[in-house]
Amino acid sequence: MSFSPQKKPFFKVARLIHAVININYICKILQVIFEGDSIFRKVILNRPNKFNSLSYEMVSQMLKNLRTFEMDSSVKFVILKANGKAFCAGGDVVSILGSMMTGHWSFGARFYKKQLNLHYLIATYKKPLIPFIDGIVMGGGAGLSMHGRFKIVTEKTVIAMPEAALGLFSDVGASHFLSRLPGHFGEYLGLTGARLNGVEMLACGLASHFVLSKDLPSLENALQTLTSFENASIHEVIHKFSQTPNLKDDSIYKRLEIIKECFSKDRVEEILLSLENEAKMKEENWITMAIKSIKSASPLSLKITLKSIREGRQLNLKQCLIRDYTIFCNISRATVNKDFYEGSRAMLFDKDKKPKWEPPILKMVSEDMVDRCFAAINDDDWKYLKLPPSRLEFFKSKL
Questions:
Q1: Which candidate among 26, 36, 131, 304 keeps its CA 20 to 30 Å from the CA of 313?
Q2: In this predicted model, what pLDDT tens digit does every residue of 338-364 receive, in sequence order?
Q3: Given 57, 92, 134, 163, which residue is catalytic?
Q4: What 3-state class would DSSP assign to 180?
């Protein structure tokens, strides 16, 4: 199934984007820089003008080089960081759509398959891999950094999972790490796209260490002088530079009791109603913003996200990633609706911020619609995602 948008300007933009992607590939722009000596390697995302959003070329380069580093016995650990103000703002949705709009929905699926393989490789890496999450991190950026033992954040770190506003869902294994947060905090983050800072990430468990941004170069130098490369030794060095800052009184994480009460409900409609009842009793900005975010997001995407997180509590990471691929392919193929394309039009292309969702309201989204997005696809261009079977036991040993 190919997809052709009704709006010709959208199609022209997509063709232009696709051309730019090809030019960038031909010119071999260094979108990822690989540095280091025989003991350590640095992987540096180098697309700062695009908030280090992941292109096909970036994912391919990282997969190839990280696999090489893992097999090289002289390499003891890897540092993952980024140039610019963002760590990684996720997958490059614009370029993905450029490929899909000028060809076939499966073009986007191929990119996504490679991206999920990268996330799984990083999550199950057989050597210490240390991300410096210094700046904005969203979507695919969380997939690069949230699944490992070490997750270093700073005062500049901001994380969000805003996919439902684009007609997508909290993916790249988010149903694994969000579902394990206390007090249904993961449902809150996935359904509202709310932002957390580095201090809040440390408090809720999304980060392992908080280090001031100015101290990261010193930490990097200290890591390079290590003679023992066991996780305990690395942790000891990081701990010397880390802090435990206090949450501010207005931090959303201090509202965990209310969040648990509202976001533990079985259905998105019930969550929204519970928030609206809270708003009648309390004038708190976060409640107002949560209601606004849920009402403006794709109704189908919200229900997919909630089901994904709830199921994710019973699944391992590998199972979550395999299921994410199936959901993404159904969304890209427009199995139920075209909300991904409409959301991207409204937020990324025309930028009118007025998407016309189908169905437009939560109560019109049936369980069957949601279930169809989790189901296998009867298409010659589709197969279930396959991830290396031997890596899962190693991942379990790290937890």
A1: 131
A2: 999 999 999 999 999 999 999 999 999
A3: 163
A4: coil
The closest of 305, 43, 349 to 188, measured between CA atoms, is: 305
163 tagged catalytic: yes
Active-site hit among 140, 141, 143, 167? 140
* SS3 of residue 82 by DSSP: strand
Q: How many Å apart are CA 184 and CA 377, to the nearest integer? A: 31
Phi and psi dihedrals of 325, rounded to 5? -60, -45
Considering the candidates 57, 92, 134, 171, report the single residue annotated as catalytic: 171
Write down the catalytic residue from 90, 91, 135, 186.
Answer: 91
Strands (DSSP E) contained in 187-284 are 196-197, 209-211, 242-243
Contact of 370 with 303, CB cutoff 8 Å: yes
**Ranges of the chain with pLDDT below 70:** 1-29, 390-399
Q: Is position 84 annotated as part of the catalytic site?
A: no
> Catalytic residue at 91?
yes
| CA separation for the pair 149, 137 (Å, rounded) | 17
pLDDT score at 247: 97
Task: Give catalytic status of residue 358 as yes or no.
Answer: no
Model-wide pTM > 0.85: yes
Q: Which residue has the tokens 């070329």?
A: 57
